[in-house]
Recover the amino acids of this structure.
């Protein structure tokens, strides 16, 4: 990069070859709030809403360990009318549940509290979120919005832009919820392939950041298995054992039909040298990298 040139964290990360495996934030519950006007840099927290309602939503979300995201449809603005909200959850037993509602007044968002305590409906199609939070990080807009447009042309009912999801330097980031699967480093062409495969229950290792139901070393182990043996369904493999040792983690992965195998995966972690990790961050930071040392039959 020449002196004085604008810094883009995603360009720098790709030039360095930053690894994104094992970078999906842990979580099983998401609160989506449609907001069609400009998004503040800090998302929902920055909205000019009734403070009591905002605190009620935040408190309920914290109690449920839910992530709150603002969403909107890519590239177009609907006419005036009610916005939507949703509570989506991966219930820990493989069931995917959703509950949707609408809001006009701030007080309508109190419905989210009840939804967080309800099981929700099964059988709904997944929601495809594309981070396009440009005021949080420029790369989320530069790389995220074109991906949102091309995906929404193909799946208009499934795709939403969303606020910050983490890992700005891996833009474009796509998250499928409530499946709980993060993908990164996407562009228009690769995003179509990745989402097509995901909707066919064929999760690929390339571009996979991880499953949000797993912790980072487990995410890295499962990605290594998918990389070696090819795409598989969301629930085709399970982590059946994780042991922390002096040098890292010993993780046992079990595969059901048609992937009937038990594999032992060794994972180690290391820190990168300090580097600039986001467009907005003025200071360098160090990232934790999870590296798979070996994959062998268990």
């Amino acid at each position: 990069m020449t002196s004085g040139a604008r810094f883009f964290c995603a360009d720098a990360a790709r030039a360095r070859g930053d690894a994104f495996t094992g970078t999906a934030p842990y979580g099983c519950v998401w609160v989506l709030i449609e907001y069609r006007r400009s998004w503040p840099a800090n998302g929902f927290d920055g909205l000019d809403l009734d403070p009591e309602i905002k605190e009620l939503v935040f408190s309920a979300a914290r109690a449920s360990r839910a992530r709150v995201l603002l969403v909107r449809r890519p590239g177009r603005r609907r006419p005036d009318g009610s916005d939507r909200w949703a509570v989506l959850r991966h219930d820990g037993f493989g069931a995917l549940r959703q509950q949707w509602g609408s809001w006009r007044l701030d007080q309508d968002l109190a419905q989210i509290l009840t939804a967080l305590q309800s099981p929700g409906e099964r059988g709904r199609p997944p929601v495809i979120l594309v981070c396009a939070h440009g005021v949080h990080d420029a790369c989320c807009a530069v790389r995220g919005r074109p991906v949102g447009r091309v995906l929404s042309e193909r799946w208009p009912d499934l795709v939403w832009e969303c606020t910050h999801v983490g890992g700005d330097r891996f833009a474009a980031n796509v998250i499928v919820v409530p499946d709980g699967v993060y993908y990164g480093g996407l562009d228009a062409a690769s995003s179509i392939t990745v989402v097509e495969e995901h909707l066919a229950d064929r999760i690929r290792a390339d571009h996979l950041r991880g499953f949000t139901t797993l912790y980072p070393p487990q995410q890295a182990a499962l990605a290594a298995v998918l990389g070696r043996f090819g795409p598989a369904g969301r629930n085709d493999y399970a982590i059946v054992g994780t042991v922390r040792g002096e040098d890292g983690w010993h993780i046992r992965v079990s595969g059901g039909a048609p992937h009937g195998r038990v594999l032992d995966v060794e994972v180690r972690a290391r820190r990168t040298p300090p580097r600039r990790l986001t467009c907005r961050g003025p200071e360098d930071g160090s990232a934790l990298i999870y590296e798979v040392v070996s994959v062998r039959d268990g």
Summary: The first helix runs from residue 9 to 16. The chain has a mean pLDDT of 92. The two ends are 47 Å apart (CA to CA). The chain has seven helices and 13 strands.
